[in-house]
Amino acid sequence: MGIIYIFFIPADPTGFKIFMKLIPMALIILFAVITRPLFSLTYKQIILAGVFVCMIADGVIYWFFAGLVTFFIGHIFYILAFRHARRKQAPIWAAVPLLLYGFGMAYWIAGSQFKIGQTILGVAIIAYIGIILTMGWMAIRTRLKLAIIGAMLFIFSDSVLAIDRFVYAIPYRDMFVMVTYYAAQIFIAASVGSRVVKYSVNPNNLIR
């Protein structure tokens, strides 16, 4: 269904375009619902809420600020889910690439809006960059591979969309944005079934 939406559905009528865009998200929600929560039921419930909010955001993104705010809320749900799932403290060096990336994107994209006098939009962009990078950092702290992959794909998808909208046009933007976006949601939904393995250090359990 994602392939059909990305490559075969025309831009008009808009209502039908939105409808077809939401079908893959509805299927991803169904996938998460039927996935057995091997880690935590609470984690599954919060992830489901996040995917559902993101599905709503997909429908209202044609009104940019409405979509931005709704996606912002979706990321909050993902942050809460990843916070619930976090394990050991991640090494601080893991945050350095995210911080450098965030500062670079803020300077490039938000800066371009400040230069033309779009102060409110520039501030909104900085806030969104902050929330999505926080989501990525919290995913890293879970040590759940599927959650981390999904978060990184989400960051990539949003970055392509932002660059195309505010800096310069990217060829085949819709393909890059939607393929990575759907993949991100699938990986995050699949992380519901992640299993956390705990190892015992009891000497009686060691093979001599």
Automatic annotation (TrEMBL):
It comes from the Bacteria. GO terms for molecular function: hydrolase activity. The chain crosses the membrane at residues 18-39, 45-78, 90-110, 116-139, 146-163, 175-197. It is found in: Membrane. Pfam families: YhhN (PF07947). GO terms for cellular component: membrane. Keywords: Membrane, Transmembrane, Transmembrane helix. Its main location: membrane. It is a multi-pass membrane protein. Belongs to the TMEM86 family. This is Membrane protein YhhN. It comes from Sporosarcina limicola. The lineage of its organism: Bacteria, Bacillati, Bacillota, Bacilli, Bacillales.
